[in-house]
Design goal:
This protein is an all-beta fold. The protein is built from no helices and eleven strands. The strands form two sheets. Strands 2, 4, 5, 6, 9, 10 and 11 form a seven-stranded mixed β-sheet that branches. It has a four-stranded antiparallel β-sheet with strand order 1-3-8-7, with no helix packed on it. The termini are far apart.
Length: 119
């Protein structure tokens, strides 16, 4: 059973930076797409960034130019570097391992990590 565990959330001032990490178990990590989602109370969970097994990345329009997703296959880890944070980035951030090289749907979720952007 694959497990996905996020870390790195916390409280940061507007304009600041945070780096989230996601560690996944299993030897097939390098063959799976990985993604970061976020969810606020009363809102739907939204995809923030995705990286395929080949390293191609896509981002939500709201975070383009500020967030960067990367992966380290040797450590079974994916990161989300978040810069120029805004109050509207406040949310619980979830990591997800996809079912194949491209597709995140139906994949395994982590438990989430809270990011709060506030002065």
């Amino acid at each position: 059973q694959v497990q996905v565990v996020e870390s790195g959330g916390g409280l940061v001032q507007p304009g600041g930076s945070l780096r989230l990490s996601c560690a996944a178990s299993g030897s097939i990590f390098r063959f799976k797409a990985m993604g970061w989602y976020r969810q606020n109370t009363g809102k739907e969970r939204e995809l923030v960034a995705r990286i395929t097994s080949g390293g191609s990345t896509t981002y939500a329009d709201s975070v383009k130019g500020r967030f960067t997703i990367s992966r380290d296959n040797a450590k079974n880890t994916v990161h989300l570097q978040m810069n120029s944070l805004k109050s509207e980035d406040t949310a619980v951030y979830y990591c997800r391992q996809g079912r194949d090289a491209m597709d995140l749907s139906g994949g395994v979720w982590g438990q989430g990590t809270q990011v709060t952007v506030s002065s």
